[in-house]
Amino acid sequence: MGSLSSFAKTTTDRMDWEALVNIVSGGMSDGVPERSRLFLDIGCGYGALSTAAAKKFGLVVGIDADLGQLESVPELLKGEMPQNLVLVRAFAEKLPFRPGQFHAVTCVQTLEHVGNPDAAIGQIRLMLAPGGRLFLSVPNRFTLRAEPHTNLRGIGYLPKWLAERYAAALGKAEEFRSLHFFSAGQVSALLRAHFGTSWRFIRSGCHHTALGRLAARAWGVAALSPLIANVVGDIEVIAWL
C-alpha cells in the first residue's frame, strides 16, 4: 500500500495551513529566492496545504495514491486552483522525481498509511535539496485524545491483535486496516536512520483542537515537554539538510 492521505477521513482536527507553510519555509539558509523554491506535499489529499504553499513557493507538487481525491481537487477549489500547483498520483515509497530538487517537503498525517514508512522517509531525504526542510506529523499512538482514523480512545496502547478486535467490535475494522501506529521513540528511530541528528520535535501550534492548543502552550515548559511529546496530540517534527 502506498501513501493515502488522512484528509479522506472525517476527524475533529483542523490545521492552519498557512501557518504550517511558514513553519516549514522559515529558517531556510539556502540562498534560493522564495519564488524559485519547490515544495512537495506528500499525501496532499484534497489540496488544502498544497494550495496554501502555492502562495509562497514557485512550484508546488502534491502527490497522493488516491486518484479520486486528486481528480476532485480542481472542482473543490471552484476554479481557484493555483497555476503553480501540479498534482501527481504517486506513492511515498517510490517518488518519481529527480533527487535533491525540493526545498521543502511536508508529510502530514500520511506516514501512518504507508506500507513501508522507512522507505518513505528515505525517499523524502533523497528528494530534499541542500538546506531543505521536512515537516512530518503522525498521530501519536499514546495520545490522550481519540485516535483520529478510528475515533477510538486507547487503541494505540493495545497489542495489534487486540487492537484489531477492538476496532472490529466497534465497526472500525476498515479504518484500522493497514494503519501504522507510531510512538515518539519509533519516529525518533526512523529519523535518526535517515537524518542523523538534523531533526527535532516541535509543536507547530497549527492544530485547532483543545489538546493541540494545550500542547503548544506547554511545550516550552521543560518539566512538561517530555510528557507532551509522548502523550498529548500528534507527533510533529522538523528535519533538515
CATH-assigned fold name? Rossmann fold
Series of secondary-structure elements, N-terminal to C-terminal = HEHEHEEHEHHHEHHE
Q: What level of helicity do the residues show?
A: 25-40%
The CATH class: Alpha Beta
* Total count of helical runs of at least 4 residues: 9
Arrangement of strands in the largest sheet: 3-2-1-4-5-7-6
Strand content: 15-25%
Low-confidence runs: 1-12
- Report the principal-axis shape: globular
Q: Please report the total strand number as a whole number.
A: 7
Mean pLDDT metric: 87
Radius of gyration, rounded? 17 Å
The CATH superfamily is identified as: Vaccinia Virus protein VP39
Q: What class, by secondary structure content? A: alpha/beta
Instruction: State the distance separating the first and last CA atoms.
Output: 28 Å
Query: What is the count of structural domains?
Result: 1
Taking the sheet with the most strands, its summary is: 7 strands, mixed
**Do you know the CATH architecture?**
3-Layer(aba) Sandwich
